[in-house]
Backbone:
């Protein structure tokens, strides 16, 4: 990739058997029995912390800053979420509740809006990003197992103690969503309106190959209707552009937190995407989006504009027969396939640039050809198609209102491999892999190659006990009675490489500071 | 930074095929390659502990409750 990209995933937290919880699961509000803030916090704190750092420096965070140049006074909140039970979490300090943890690979892991969230550091390699993202699943699985052991002890008097199940997905199937966001660094010099116009049609249609699929049609906080969709997120977008993320969600999010040199960079904070189990889908979601940003930087502009993107994202998501069309501002009607072909034909100018680009382009072409003719073989890589192929066999021509279908959908996303449908399909060889288990294992302790995440990882391993504060672009040490802050405003490049080299060579922390002053 | 090749995808048969020229008309649909073979670190053939999908579906329906409501996130 020509730009650093990271992925942040809020994992679903399915809680079962808590005292007072509706055994049938028919309640539509989570407020009845479970303190989700407390549970999310305990899950994060169940992470193995040897060598990790507990805490987070919020100095560089400002989610109220808008890419359009203003700073909003408040962000919209879903009124349903404000009713959540919080009797146990109220007894925790802010630090305990948020449970911020920086793992040895430089990833941030914490309780975000009552969900455990795993954020990779930005990566320069697509396949390394996939491995870092998969490493998050490994971390979450270990935490789920530990938390369930704790719950078994805590509720030992009950015949069946409560348990938690973590999901890499984006819906609770009761009208609430939680996000998987991608973050792409791009130059601030590019006119924002240009980026918005170019990205929205792509965000609306890319679900064709990177939608995670879902059983049911939801409305925010409301009832669910039978059906099957390409995307788990499509139902929850209400606006074309906006800064909000927990309510009134926009297709193009304008949060302006570059976590890098603000004078040079913006961070494209993409909330219009699904959590993928398929490694291929993760790679293609990011790889194609990065290429579209390359196109924008290269001066290309799409020759189409959707008349109503919010309507289009839902129509396309619900049109799993692939025939759904969206209206353009010039009155023409196009399918998702047509839009993605338009983008592909432009991106093909980058063929031959590097191996990774060629891989993305070849996969993109093959996928478009598949959807234009016989999509069936794509079920080994496209999450929604893998699900639909299986669910069609299960339902044998019957409707989508069978509740067992939703249970199977849930099972596809389970992090625990014992009941995970995705893991079963993978073990059967019916889902393709891109990275090996050894690469995922390595990504648990090593930061992304050539990035400040690798520097953070190295500093943690070498000088962790001296770290006082930590965030994406800085590490603050306490040493010899003073605080010393290492600021990294670039995610990669010669400065980052030099700091990494010095951090490897320095015999101790003071030597590192001295060497950095001399450079 | 260009791709170093250090992170080769385990499954990448399409890498050998050059992308079609952008102006070339769409061809007849091509058959996608067969699903991924076993990963090098897993040895050959289907894993002995690979669950039968039908059995896994029955187990899920038997053991997994319906999804529970959760709070919304971002």
Residues:
């Amino acid at each position: 990739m020509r730009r650093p990209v990271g992925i942040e995933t809020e994992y679903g937290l399915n809680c079962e058997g808590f005292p007072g919880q509706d055994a049938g699961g028919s309640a539509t509000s989570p407020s009845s029995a479970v303190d989700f803030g407390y549970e999310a916090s305990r899950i994060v704190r169940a992470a193995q912390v040897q060598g990790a750092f507990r805490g987070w420096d919020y100095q560089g965070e400002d989610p109220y800053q808008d890419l359009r140049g203003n700073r909003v006074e408040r962000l919209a909140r879903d009124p349903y979420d404000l009713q959540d039970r919080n009797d146990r979490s109220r007894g925790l300090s802010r630090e305990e509740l948020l449970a911020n943890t920086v793992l040895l690979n430089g990833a941030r892991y914490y309780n975000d809006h009552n969900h455990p969230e795993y954020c990779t550091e930005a990566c320069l390699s697509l396949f390394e990003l996939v491995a870092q993202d998969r490493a998050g699943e490994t971390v979450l699985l270990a935490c789920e197992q530990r938390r369930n052991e704790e719950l078994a002890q805590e509720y030992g008097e009950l015949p069946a103690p409560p348990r938690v199940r973590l999901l890499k997905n984006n819906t609770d199937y009761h009208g609430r969503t939680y996000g998987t966001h991608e973050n792409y660094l791009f130059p601030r010099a590019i006119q924002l309106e240009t980026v918005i116009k170019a990205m929205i049609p792509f965000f609306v249609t890319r679900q064709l190959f990177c939608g995670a699929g879902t059983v049911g049609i939801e409305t925010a906080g409301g009832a669910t209707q039978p059906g099957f969709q390409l995307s788990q997120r499509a139902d929850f977008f209400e606006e074309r552009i906006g800064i909000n993320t927990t309510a009134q969600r926009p297709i193009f999010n304008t949060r302006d937190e570059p976590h890098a040199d603000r004078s040079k960079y913006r961070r494209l904070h993409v909330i219009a995407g699904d959590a993928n189990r398929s490694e291929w889908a993760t790679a293609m979601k990011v790889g194609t989006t990065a290429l579209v940003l390359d196109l924008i930087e290269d001066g290309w502009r799409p020759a189409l504009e959707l008349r109503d993107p919010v309507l289009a994202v839902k129509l396309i998501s619900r049109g799993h027969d692939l025939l759904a069309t969206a209206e353009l501002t010039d009155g023409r009607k196009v399918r998702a396939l047509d839009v993605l072909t338009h983008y592909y034909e432009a991106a093909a100018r980058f063929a031959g640039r590097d191996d990774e680009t060629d891989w993305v382009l070849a996969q993109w072409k093959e996928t478009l050809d598949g959807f234009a003719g016989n999509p069936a073989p794509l079920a080994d890589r496209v999450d929604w198609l893998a699900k639909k192929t299986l669910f069609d066999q299960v339902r044998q021509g019957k409707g989508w209102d069978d509740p067992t279908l939703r249970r199977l959908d849930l099972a596809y996303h389970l992090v625990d491999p014992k009941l995970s449908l995705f893991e079963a399909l993978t073990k059967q060889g019916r889902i393709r892999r891109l990275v090996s288990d050894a690469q995922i294992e390595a990504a648990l302790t090593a930061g992304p190659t050539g990035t400040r995440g690798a520097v953070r990882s190295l500093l943690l391993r070498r000088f962790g006990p001296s770290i006082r504060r930590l965030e994406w672009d800085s590490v603050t040490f306490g040493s010899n009675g003073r605080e010393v802050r290492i600021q990294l405003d670039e995610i990669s490049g010669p400065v980052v490489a030099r700091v990494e080299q010095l951090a490897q060579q320095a015999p101790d922390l003071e030597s590192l500071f001295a060497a950095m002053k001399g450079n | 930074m260009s791709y170093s090749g250090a992170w080769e995808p385990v499954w990448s048969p399409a890498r050998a095929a050059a992308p079609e020229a952008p102006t070339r008309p769409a061809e007849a649909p091509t058959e996608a390659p067969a699903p991924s073979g076993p990963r090098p670190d897993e040895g050959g053939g289907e894993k002995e502990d690979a669950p039968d999908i039908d059995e896994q579906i029955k187990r899920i329906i038997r053991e997994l409750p319906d999804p529970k409501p959760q709070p919304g996130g971002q």
User: Anything to note?
Assistant: The first strand of chain A starts at residue 5 and ends at 10. Chain A touches chain B through 107 residues (CB under 8 Å). DSSP finds 16 helices and 18 strands in chain A. The longest helix of chain A spans residues 126-154.
